[in-house]
Amino acid sequence: MLQTVPASSEKADAPKDTILSVDNIEVVYNEYVLVLRGLSLTVERGSITALLGANGAGKSTTLKAISGLLKSEDGEITRGSITFDGQIISHQEPERTVRSGIFQVMEGRRIIQDMTVLENLKLGAFTRSDGGVKDDIDLVYSYFPRLKERTGLAGYLSGGEQQMLAIGRAMMARPKLILMDEPSMGLSPLLVKEVFGIIKRLNEDFGVTILLVEQNAAMALACARHGYIMENGKIVLDGPAEELRENEDIKEFYLGGSGERKSFKNIKSFKRRKRWL
Amino acid sequence: MNWSLLVQLLANGLIVGMLYGVVAMCFVLIYKSTQVVNFAQGEFLVLGAWVCLWFITDMQMPFIVAFLFTLVFMTLFGIMIQVVILRPLIGEPVVSVIMVTIGLSIFLQALMNWIFGNSAERFPQVFETESVNVAGLNVESAYLMSLVMSVLIMGGFYLFFRFSKYGLAMRATAFNQQTAQSLGISVRQVFALAWAISAIVSGVAGIIIGMVNSVSSSLAIIGIKVFPAVILGGLDSIVGAVIGGIIIGLLENFAEFVDGQFLNWGNLFTIAPFYVLIIILMIKPYGLFGTKDIERI
Ligand SMILES: Nc1ncnc2c1ncn2[C@@H]1O[C@H](COP(=O)(O)OP(=O)(O)O)[C@@H](O)[C@H]1O
Ligand SMILES: [Mg+2]
């Protein structure tokens, strides 16, 4: 329908099949706090796309704008549009967005603590009415054998297990696009590795598109195809993940820094940007 | 001391208490899923009883048909109350919402007085025999039905919240609305469902009480008695509501026994639950099963 960019007019090479496109959106909380200031990005079907940026840059807000969860926080898209699979979804209710195939794994996992693992997984399939739910529960258990052993309340799971449950719950919805908000938050390096391994496997095994928000830029760029860097409610840089990995600024500010500081101006900017980490 | 009277009264207490538990569950269900304190709970009971009676006497329906029609009516009524009155109030201060439910209670009282009159009316005989003998106890048929219905409703609640998709969705919504939305659950639907279930079950309870006593606006007193029950059990615990209801029922009848045998005050059973209410509020303000972070009103 409103597929804005015909494949041929895009840069030059391979045609791009866009599943999600966010065009110049502006988001306001509580009617006056402007958080996103004209943000645009596109996500290619079947890819993992990383969205990186400092704390407070507006990453979670971007995901909530896409999923529609913004409304329950008194946030509103005041300009621009979001197109998913050819449909404009900018002002859609979140439950409809889930039904159209977008599932957000929110920051902090948001497990339902007073329910069991199984009940949480069943709820992931809330919008489905096909008969495959039972099989999918087994499928999730095959990805996360540890979850199967946990029969008590989900609130007693460790942070890593809760993250796995959150991802498993997303699998239960069989979405086309998963919006994943900081899956590595609060996890040990070993677990972070495991979680990213699983994200990559999900993408390969099911072809599910993933928009991955992270502060752990190294990890995210290692598994993403394309990356966006945002600052202050806008995209400031984007490119293929391998290019971003080589980018000097990003190396310095996100990937542990190797280059020396060249001028006073850079030092200032370094200090400012160091809070990104 | 009259032991058989005591046993009889405690059996009554248990049966009535189970019914209080059912009404308390309705109250807690609404509080837990929509954060509304429903002061019109008692009027829901009266409405169910009046409507069922109206179907029987004015529409000449057999009891069971009238009962089913009442369930349908109460479903629509519950949804309508939520959609028309409470949905616009989402996000308003707790106190405003409480005022509205108190207003609703008064409005329904007046409306029912106008439509159904203010004299008590009896249900026609539904059971063949007035009472049956269970293990040496003389139990009125209506009480027995009350017990059976209470157990069925409680069992139904358990199965619904444990296994059904919408039961899980309601629990998820009670836990966190935004999380529920992120799973594709419509919070509006859940709210409407909570009011519908509460209205249906209240209606059933009203019919049962109407059959045991008679139908009049004074049935709404059950809606008040539910407060000691839910405060005893904890405002947000469904299991607590049941246990609180049973305790209040037993206590009432025990108070009646003590009063009748020793004190002869004549009204201890009506006030005993409220003494308990005050004592509970003093020593355990969140009830036996409630969570601490809920606000007291
Ligand atoms: N519900 C809200 N109401 C008002 N301001 C908010 C709300 N959520 C986030 N913000 C503000 O929006 C900005 C971006 O937040 P967020 O999207 O959470 O950033 P990030 O996920 O990149 O850390 C922050 O300045 C934050 O204070
Ligand atoms: Mg965030």
From TrEMBL, chain A:
What organism does the record attribute this protein to? Answer: Oricola cellulosilytica
| Protein name as it appears in the record | ABC transporter ATP-binding protein
Q: Which Gene3D superfamilies match?
A: P-loop containing nucleotide triphosphate hydrolases
Biological process per Gene Ontology, one example term: L-amino acid transport
Q: Which Pfam families match?
A: ABC_tran
Any keyword Transcription? no
**What SUPFAM superfamilies does the record tag this protein with?**
P-loop containing nucleoside triphosphate hydrolases
Lineage of origin: Bacteria, Pseudomonadati, Pseudomonadota, Alphaproteobacteria, Hyphomicrobiales
Coiled-coil segments, which residues?
A: none
Keyword annotations from UniProtKB, A to Z: Amino-acid transport, ATP-binding, Nucleotide-binding, Transport
The entry sums up its family as follows: Belongs to the ABC transporter superfamily.
TrEMBL record, chain B:
One BP term from GO = amino acid transport
Q: State the source organism's domain of life.
A: Bacteria
GO cellular component terms, alphabetically, are: plasma membrane
Q: Which InterPro entries match?
A: ABC_transp_permease (IPR001851), BCAA_transport_permease (IPR052157)
| Transmembrane regions listed in the UniProt entry | 6-30, 37-57, 63-86, 93-116, 142-161, 190-212, 218-251, 263-283
Location relative to the cell: Cell membrane
Keywords (A to Z) from UniProt: Amino-acid transport, Cell membrane, Membrane, Transmembrane, Transmembrane helix, Transport
Which CDD domains does the protein's record reference? TM_PBP1_LivH_like
Provide the GO MF annotations for this entry.
Answer: transmembrane transporter activity
Question: What is the membrane topology noted in the UniProt record heading this document?
Answer: Multi-pass membrane protein
Annotated family: Belongs to the binding-protein-dependent transport system permease family. LivHM subfamily.
Q: What is this protein called?
A: Branched-chain amino acid ABC transporter permease
